[in-house]
Amino acid sequence: MDNFWFYLKMGLEHVLDFSAYDHILFLAVLTIPFTFKSWKKVVVLATIFTITHCISLGLSAYKILEVDVSIIEFLIPVTILLTAIFNLVHVKSKEEQKSLLWHGIATAFFGLIHGFGFSNYFKMLMAEETDIITPLLGFASGIELSQLLIVLSVLVLAFLVQSIVKVKQSLFILGASILVLLITIPMLINTFPF
Predict the structure, then answer these.
(1) Can you tell me the distance from the alpha carbon of 39 to that of 126, in angstroms, rounded to the nearest whole number?
(2) 35-45, pLDDT tens digit by residue?
(3) Which end of the chain is more exposed for a tag (fewer CB within 10 A), N or C?
(4) Could you tell me the pTM of the whole model?
């Protein structure tokens, strides 16, 4: 059981590491279009992301599928950029009109990419382990808890900005998504593999 808690803590630290803010940035941009009224949709998306993130870790740990790290390092900011652009394109959509299907499919694909980004380090940790399932479940639990914390933080920020400062939701989505785009551009340039 100690192993589980060790990996749970590692999952928490993996997502909440401000020096590797790509995970936080992705979750923030994923949450930006939603409010507390639709919190369940965001939790579903975060959980889809966790599951697919862990699937790619598992595929890599069991040496079923390995992907070139330099390509993954570039694709991670691409996922952030595409999610921000998606927000901008659908900025005027009403919350109840936002389909979870396409959002969920994109989130699942992006979760796989982000998981492969961490897979080499995770594989190195697993080299000494005989049981990979317990660490993977602990890590997944840590990721999910930290993601829920980020989602809650973004929803609170959105609530404060929209309710207290009286910024319209569409303007909040527009401004926050543009900010994410501006932060992501240098990441794209720095990780460009070719």
Answers:
(1) 35
(2) 888 888 888 99
(3) C
(4) 0.87
